[in-house]
Each structure stands twice: as C-alpha cells, then as structure tokens.
Amino acid sequence: MSESLEGRACDAAQRCVDGYVCNTVTNRCIRATPGAPLSELPIGCQEGMTLCGNECRLLASDAKSCGGCGATCSAPANAAPICLNNDCNFACLKPYVACGSQCVDTNHDPQNCGACGAVCPEQAGGTASCVDGKCQALCRAPFQACAGDCTDVSTDPGRCGSCNTACIPGEVCSNGVCAESCAGGLSACSGACVDVASSVNHCGTCGMRCPTPAQGTPLCTNSNCDFSCNAGWTKCGNTCVDTLTDAANCGACDAACNAPANGQSRCEKGVCAIVCSAGYAECSGECVQTARDPSNCGACGHACASGEVCNAGNCTVSCSGTAENCNGSCSDLASDPAHCGSCDVMCPGAAHGVPSCANGMCGIACDAGYTSCSGQCVRSDVDAKNCGVCGNSCPAAANGQATCAAGVCGITCNAGFSLCGGQCVNTNADPAHCGGCSTACAMGQVCESGVCGMACGSKTECSGACVELASDTSNCGSCGKICGAPSNAAPSCNSGVCSFQCKQALVRCGQQCVDVKSDVANCGQCGKACPGVVGGKATCSNSQCGIQCNAGLSACKGECVSSKGKGKCKP
After folding, report:
1. Lower CB density within 10 Å: C or N end of the chain?
2. Burial class of residue 77 (count of CB atoms within 10 Å of its CB; 0-12, 13-18, 19+)
3. Helix (H) or strand (E) run with residue 547 in it
4. What are the tens digits of pLDDT across the range 194-221?
5. H or E stretch including 226?
6. In Å, what is the CA distance from 248 to each residue of 154, 270, 517?
C-alpha cells in the first residue's frame, strides 16, 4: 500500500505531485478529488486562483493557463508570451518592437526601417539594408551606390564611370566611358552598352531585367535568367529560403506549415509551430477563446454537451444578453470578425492587416504604419495612389513619375530630364529651357547640347530642339514620336524604336513592370498566377504563392477550412 503524501510540504513553487494540491495557507499538500469543484476542496487554492491539475493558477495573468486551464499563450520570435485580464498577448524583447504580429528591430530590418512598414527599396544591383534605422544599398560589383541606388557605372549613361559623370545626350556609356557608339559585341540599350547574353538588366533583349531574389544574386547566362543563393540559403522555386525558419518551406522546399484560424504558422529549426493572435490561446494546436469555444469552454479540452453553448467560459443552455448562438459559441455579432452581422459572415483579411468587425460591418485593422483604403492596408505617407489620404492619386508628368513623400505629392524626372515649373524637360535640347529652366532661346534659334545656336549640325532639328532620332524619347525615329511607359518605368528609345526600362528591382512582364516578390499574377516569374481559394484569397510573399483565410478559417494544405470537426488541421 502506497504511503499517503497528505500533509507533506509543498515545493518552492507551491506545487505537489499529481493528485494533490498545495494548501497555500499552510503550505501543505492535500488530496485533490479529480473533477471536484474548487469549492469542495478542503481549503485548496487562494481566493481568485483556480485549480488546474495539481497547481493553483491565476487565470487572469498566467500565460500557461490564460482565461482557462491549459490555455497557453504563444509569442512570435523575439518576444515573450503574456496574459492580461484573461487574454493572451505578447511583449517584444529589447531592442525589438511590435509591428503587427511580429517583433522586429527597426534599426536593422529593411522591411521596417526606422518605423513599422518603412520598406527599403529593392535594388536590382544589390541588397536593400537598414543601418541605424536608415535605408542603405549594399551593392555588388560592378554596381556602385549612387544616391541610394545601385548603379552599374560601367554601362549607365547617367553615371558613366562614376556617380557624378553623365554622358551628353546622344552618347552611350561603353565600359565606363562616354562614347559615340558601343564597343564591338555590345548592344545599346537606352544609352547603356551591354552584352545581352550576360547582362542582368538587359537579358536577351533590352529592358528584360532578371528578378533579384532576397538573399540571392540574379544571373543571366546565354540570354536566360537564373539566380544563385547566398551561403546558408536554399534555392526553392523562384526564391532563396532558410528551411530552418521559413514557414512556406519548413525543413524542405514546398513543406508549408498549416496556419490555424486566429493565428499564424511559424517554423522553428525546421519544425512547424503556431503563434496565436492577440486575445487567443493555444489548445491542442488550435487558437481559441476559452470564454466562448464549445470544445474548450473554460479550459482546454472541456467540451460542452450537445445542446449546450459556451457562455463566458461556462457551458449553459443559452447565451446571455445580446450574444447569439453560432454553432455553440456565444458571439457578439456586432464585433466578432468570424461572425460579423450574422453567424455565417466571416470577414476577409489583407496584407499588413487582420479582419475586424464594427457594428456588424467587416473591415480591416491595419498594422502600425499602414492605413485601411478600400479593403487594403497602404502606406499613405509614400503611396502615390493614396498620398496623405485614401484615394488621393498623385498626378504624373511626361518624362517623369509621380511620387509621394511624407504624404505630399511630387515628381521625379526620368534620367536626362530636369524639373522645371512642374514639368520634366530636356535642358540639353528644349529651346524654352536651354541649358537651364530659366534660359529660353531667341526666335529662330535652336538648342543644341544646352546652348542656343543657329544650326543643329549632325543632329536633327525637331521644333527648335537638336536631337538624336535614334535615342531621343520625345522624338524616337521621327520628330514628335513620343515614347510612353507604364507605371514604375522610364521610356527608352533604342535605334529609333520605343521601349521602356523598369525601375529599381521591378521586372518587365509584357507591358507592365511588376514586383515578382509580391504580385499574385506574376509570383516569382512572369505569368505565374497564384490560384484563388474558397474562403480566402491568394497571396504572394517572397516570390512564393500562399493563401490568407477569412476570419474563423484555418489554412490547411492550401485550402481554407473550418477549424472544427472534420476541417481540423494541425500545424
């Protein structure tokens, strides 16, 4: 017969072996009757605490039993889980700060540089970096950092040989030297002399830039794009990943972690795990609220009987107040994004935001630094289509691009053009702005290389402007033929034929310039569209297709499914 442990001293943490609970008044172990209410125990836990197994826990603040026994709070990387007033949350460790559901170092994170959502621009010739909260470009040879951009000074006519050397209109940049024509074997692409068989900016043809993957280097071999990954990174599809931490490739390529409703997936040392959203706790791989989950009512694993509902953590026959019975859960239809306005309405989410419900209407709660505009979360301080306020689209200018900085619209002129009175003009050829914005040529004079004169010499006169028809974007091939360009591109004229060059690290797909890292219609490469999904929407992140499910649904093997019953899906 085993010896009774009744009356033995509790350990330093006021715990006893299974079957016993610590009498915190006498600090002695007493026998706990399994399933007995706390009120029937001989003394038991202190007032306000709850017996969970053989331990007394304060459910209002215990991260291991938050709001209910066994309801465990989780946290993203660089954070610690906390429980506040029966709700789970997390606290970022120093020097990290909370940006949405992540903890980031705004001094070094290029996706949140200096502030949440402040993204450092991608670089076609290098890697975007963040140093002390300021964006910098880490360029690879032969690219050099020029005004924050990585520029190939061996071919760029605007920065030929060095950041401060620009070729005059009509000249090309060949091997870092301004010249009248390209050296043998090189092709002229917008004034840049390149080998289209190996140039990552003009691979196979002018303007065809090879994608630059994160943690990788683009390659152009025999006019075909490819890439290599940095040391320690693995090539998966069209990107480079760390299979120890990438939730889309956890442990191996294409091994995507499932994400629960009301939470996110994560990868820890090549093994899938989950992080529950604020206000939710983990119970056996699900993110729940024990106050109203009929399968985990008041405690993990405590299921209400058939016909009962979970009401404020208790199984009852009906919901109290204005709460509605939605499949056994007592929900506030005015504020529950999984049951918004009615039990069967699940609110959709968005990139950089989570679903919300106010007064029975779906919305988006955007991460810090972002603003909700027409169902999307945007950076209104830099978004040229929503500059300062939603819907404020900055006007474009010929030979320039609309910009938005600090919520104020502006214009950035294309290479070779100067901003004069709100217009982008070629001061080397424009007779109204010859050599400078305020210098106009006299009647009958022409403007040649920024100087007013009487004749154009070897160049062609087009309305007083002396131009090279082979390369002038306002007179391409003939006077008055203006080359156009899509958004985020600059027009070009090559041998009298119009084309365009995409800016920064964007890639030309047909007649568009897209970011293949995030474009759902061109994810990782042109034409690769991410498939749609019932109950959610397709996403593209780091050149990889994914899904974002509506509130109340779990992402499971590429589908959005119910988190209950047959639809249950583990990480």
Report:
1. N
2. middle
3. strand 544-549
4. 999 999 989 999 989 898 888 888 999 9
5. strand 224-229
6. 38, 11, 14
E strand spans, 260-320: 263-268, 271-276, 281-283, 286-288, 309-311, 314-316
Q: Is the preceding peptide bond at 121 cis, omega within 30 degrees of 0?
A: no
Residue 156 burial (CB count, 10 A) = 26
pLDDT in tens, 244-270: 999 999 999 999 999 999 999 999 999
DSSP-derived secondary structure for 474-491: TSSSSTT-PPP--TTEEE
Q: Given a cut of 90, is residue 186 above it in pLDDT?
A: yes
Does the pTM of the predicted model rise above 0.70? yes
Torsion of CA 255, 256, 258, 262, to 10 degrees: 160
Radius of gyration for the alpha carbons in the chain, expressed in angstroms and rounded: 31
β-sheet bridge partners, residue 481: none
Cis amide prior to 95 (ω within 30 degrees): yes
In sequence order, the β-bridge partners of residue 447 are 452, 465
Question: Mind giving me the DSSP string for 104-146?
Answer: E-TTT-TTSSSSTT-PPPP-TTEEEEEETTEEEEEE-TTEEEE
Closest among 518, 509, 526, 510 to 543, alpha carbons compared: 518
